[in-house]
Design a protein that fits this description.
The chain is an alpha+beta fold and 129 residues long. Helices cover 24% and strands 44% of the residues.
């Protein structure tokens, strides 16, 4: 069995274990007409920035969001979820966007250690968090 097949087997087994424990909190995300329910493996990185251009009402821009929350779906696939919000102007205008995509083997292989070792470690820890 190759490394990716072993990783996929671990993902399926982890889902079985998590589904058997109702205390394990699930998250549900959706974007681009796709909805995924599962468990957060990695919270990604949050950002927030406010810029005031002057003291005039509405002369500002505030952006915030999260890049790359990683989720183990109930289907044992690994997904990346990101969202972005922007608020500015007078009257205030809010813009929102989000993306959700299934990660492929090339996204999960990692750059250090054995192939898939980073996400293998995260899956192994997920049962205990």
């Amino acid at each position: 069995m190759d490394e990716y097949a072993e990783f996929r087997q671990l993902a399926r087994k982890t889902v079985e274990l998590l589904q058997a424990d109702p205390s394990k909190k699930k998250s549900k995300v959706s974007a681009d007409n796709i909805e995924v329910e599962g468990w957060t493996i990695d919270h990604g990185s949050s950002y927030s920035k406010e810029t005031l251009f002057s003291k005039a009402p509405g002369d500002f821009k505030e952006v915030w969001g999260n890049n790359g929350e990683i989720i183990l779906g109930e289907d044992a696939e690994i997904y990346s979820f990101s969202w972005h919000k922007e608020e500015s102007g007078w009257p205030t205008v809010m813009k929102e966007s989000s993306s959700l995509r299934k990660l492929e083997a090339r996204d999960l292989v990692g750059g250090k250690g054995k192939p898939f070792s980073e996400y293998t470690n995260k899956l192994n820890r997920l049962r205990w968090s």
